[in-house]
Amino acid sequence: MPTTLVQVENLSKTYVRGTQRVEVLHGIDLAIEAGDFLALMGPSGSGKTTLLNLIGGLDAPSGGRITVGGVRIDDLPENALARWRSQNVGFVFQFYNLLATLSARGNVELPLLLTRLSRAERRARADIALQLVGLADRAAHKPAELSGGQQQRVAIARAIVSDPTLLVCDEPTGDLDRQSAAEVLTLLQQLNREHGKTVIMVTHDPKAAEFAHRLVHLDKGTLVDVVERPAA
Amino acid sequence: MKYWQLIRAALLRHKVRTLFTLLSVVAAFLLFGLLDSVRGAFAGAGSSVAGLNRLVTVSKISFTLQLPKSLLEPIRAVPGVADVTYANWFGGIYQDPKNFFPNEAVAANFLDAYPEWQFTPAARAAFRSTRTGAVVGAALARQFNWKVGDRIPLQATIFPQKNGSNTWTLDLVGIFHVTDERQKAQEKLLLFNWDYFDEARAFGAGNVGWYVVRVADAAAADRVAQAIDALSANSDHETKTQSERAFQLAFVSQFGDIGLIVGAIMAAVFFTLILLTGNTMAQAVRERVPELAILKTIGFTSGSVLGLVLAESVLLLVLGGVAGIVLAGAVAKGLTATLGIILPPIVSSLAVWTRSLGVMVLIGVIVGALPAYRGLRLRVVDALAGR
């Protein structure tokens, strides 16, 4: 029987910009099962990225509860939340966000610096992650020496190297050509199917959304629709 | 150490900028090391004469004032005095004013007071017996390619001769060596016979510039110094007896308050350094906001990010600072070799290193504090959104 990994209850988020209060999310309820591949869709400003950031523990909600893997993350203090992120969540962004001065291996190794692993163990695990994304032969290359698709695969390797249960991806194919996008999405699908990672992906692209099991539509900060998709 | 690759990567992000910042830190600490060594050397010259067996007696009012030669025997009679000799600054020029070297007229037994100067017995005897005899250090002889038997014409700047001539022609009778590397600068000295000087000078005959007193027991130096000064107390030629080092200090201090000058220069240097490296660090961190946001995203705490930025700025200062202090040590060694005759030995002591390391860390923390605070306060979602 599937277990619920992420439970979002009556979630709201309000930003204060100068004298203005902007309510970005209100009354969101959502349950995401372990092993799910979920696409968050909706027009710009609908609150997709805000919801993703809240589930990933990058931001704190203004109201409501977020429980991930049985842990209430909405009331965790900042340092505890940082530790929780390092152990439970992998992040993939539209613009890869790799450190330009580090090699692919160095970038993948970053999350492992927060563990007690030895240098050799860190290096071995980073190499395995790079192997998994098909870039074992590019370990020593700097980001500038890699194509956009390769950089995004390095970012995915960085996201999975500490073996998190949850992958949160914000427009992971938004900056890629069609072929690279398909490779990245196939990789995410593989991680979901073969390694049991729960994937939450924000996307505007209907083609990308086809890789998900469920499509969650947001509009003006409200959850308007959840569509189950048959397994591809 | 596992964060080393992150700190290294940050420093190498803009290699040229890091290099120039590093060079400015090297230059600043080269100056700091050198000036602190100079300040320490002067401070260390000390006022106590305890433990030293060679004292210098000069006029209490100013060492540029002369003392009567009649003090010679009373000084010799002071209990504890092993021997006394005397000298006078001559200040002559050889060929060109830029060929500066110290030259003095000295009593025949002056050479005996300095056993560290190594002469042949023949040279010692010739100096005593030759009225126009002069001896020079080996370094000075090499500089002007002098050899024993040469005649050296010195142009007087202070003491013309009675006959109106400004030219004092000396006969080189000996060349001395100094084996102690720290005292090697003494090989730049020229000494010539007192009798020639005193008999031929147009004014001041019968007066000496300073007395050099050898004490039998170094531990009694303070008491001997006081006894010598008591000889001329309340006279028109009161004396001040002090260690050679203190005498050198007084000589150089005529140029100004060394401590104040050194302090003012160091303050200006470090003020500029803080502005320069502070600006560099602020710029470097501003450019890396997205990278710092990523570190926070993957689980680095705000404290870790603060520590990384501070470590980066402290490392920059320590790398440049250590290089600067090492260079300062080399320059100090060169200065001591060149100017050791008029300056106390300038060395990069442990105290200089300790103070320098403290200053490096302090400035590193100061210049890194504001950028590090920015990293601490960084909101990940804002930084990732480019806000």
Label this structure with key terms.
heterodimer; A: 232 residues; alpha/beta; Rossmann fold; six-stranded mixed beta sheet; globular; B: 387 residues; alpha+beta; two-stranded antiparallel ribbon; elongated
Query: Any idea how many domains of chain A?
Result: 1
Give the SSE order of chain A as H and E letters.
EEEHEEHEHHHEHEHEE
Major beta sheet summary of chain B: 9 strands, mixed
Please count the beta strands of chain A (DSSP E, at least 2 residues each). Answer: 10
**Backbone shape of chain A:** globular
Q: Helix content range of the residues of chain B, please?
A: 40-55%
Radius of gyration of chain B: 29 Å
Explained architecture:
The complex is a heterodimer of chains A (232) and B (387). Chain A has one domain (36-53, 84-228): P-loop containing nucleotide triphosphate hydrolases (Rossmann fold), CATH 3.40.50. Chain A contains seven helices and ten strands. In chain A, strand 4 and strand 5 form a beta hairpin. In chain A, the strands form two sheets. In chain A, strands 6-7-8-3-9-10 form a six-stranded mixed sheet, with helices on both faces. Chain A is globular, with a radius of gyration of 17 Å. Chain A has helices spanning 48-55, 78-88, 104-109, 119-132, 148-160, 178-195, 206-209; strands at 4-17, 20-33, 37-41, 63-68, 71-72, 89-92, 166-170, 198-202, 214-219, 222-228. Chain A is 32% helix and 29% strand. Chain A has 232 residues and is of the alpha/beta class. By secondary structure, chain B is of the alpha+beta class. Chain B has two domains: 4-45 and 257-384, no CATH class; 66-236, no CATH class. Helix content of chain B is 51%, strand content 15%. In chain B, the strands form two sheets. A nine-stranded mixed sheet of chain B has the order 6-7-5-8-4-3-10-1-11. Chain B has a two-stranded antiparallel sheet with strand order 2-9. In chain B, helix 1 packs across helix 11. The longest helix of chain B is centred in the C-terminal third of the chain and has 38 residues, at 302-339. The radius of gyration of chain B is 29 Å and the shape is elongated. The chains are: A alpha/beta (232), B alpha+beta (387). The interface between A and B is medium-sized, with 27 and 25 residues.
